[in-house]
Amino acid sequence: MEGTATGFLMGGSLSAIRTETGAGLPSLRGAILFLEHRRGTGLGEVDRALTQLTRSRALDGVRGVALGQFLGFERDADDPTLGGWGIRDVLRDRLAALGVPVLGGLPAGHGNNPPTIPLGTRATIDTATGTLTVLPAVVQRVGVLADRRPAPGGRQVSAR
């Protein structure tokens, strides 16, 4: 789905998040969920993980999804036993039901020299510009009251 979404950035490796379902995974309500994954057994593992997260209702209230690298899946593109499906098809099929913006292609994950993704900070995804903008995790003090606006210098990661 196209669009923009803002929320607290949470997530990481799909297999680690799946493992925490029902065993300590914090609520993802209001979050921008960042996912990345390194291929193990194949497309089925991604399908099963996303199906488990959906059926367990762990993804309820997610505002958007930011997809990093899904390494090793490029070899599935020419596998005739998969019916022409690749990693993009599985991700699109499983995440479309959420009805939230999904930004793919971010150069973050287990690849070489990935950028640091500061989880727990406010972030915005914009599918039109292909960007994930992460705001700094610090706040400035103004007078007696804390100014809730992030300090200047947010980081932007582009999917293009």
Offer a few descriptive terms.
alpha/beta; 160 residues; 9 strands; 32% strand
Task: Summarize the model shown.
The chain is α/β, with parallel strands linked by helices. The chain has 3 helices and 9 strands; from the N terminus they run βαβαβαββββββ.
- Structural class of the helix and strand makeup? alpha/beta
Low-confidence parts? 143-151
Number of strands: 9
Rg result: 17 Å
Total helix count? Answer: 3
The portion of residues forming beta strands comes to: 25-35%
Average pLDDT, rounded to a whole number, is: 85
Strand line-up in the sheet with most strands: 4-3-2-1-5-6-9
Binned, the helix content reads 10-25%
Largest sheet: 7 strands, mixed
Order of helices and strands: EHEHEHEEEEEE
For the termini, the CA-CA separation is 17 Å
Shape: globular
What would you say this structure looks like, in words?
The chain is α/β, with parallel strands linked by helices and 160 residues long. It has 3 helices and 9 strands; from the N terminus they run βαβαβαββββββ. It has a 7-stranded mixed β-sheet. Helix 2 (43-55) runs parallel beside helix 3 (87-95). Mean pLDDT is 85; it is low at 143-151.
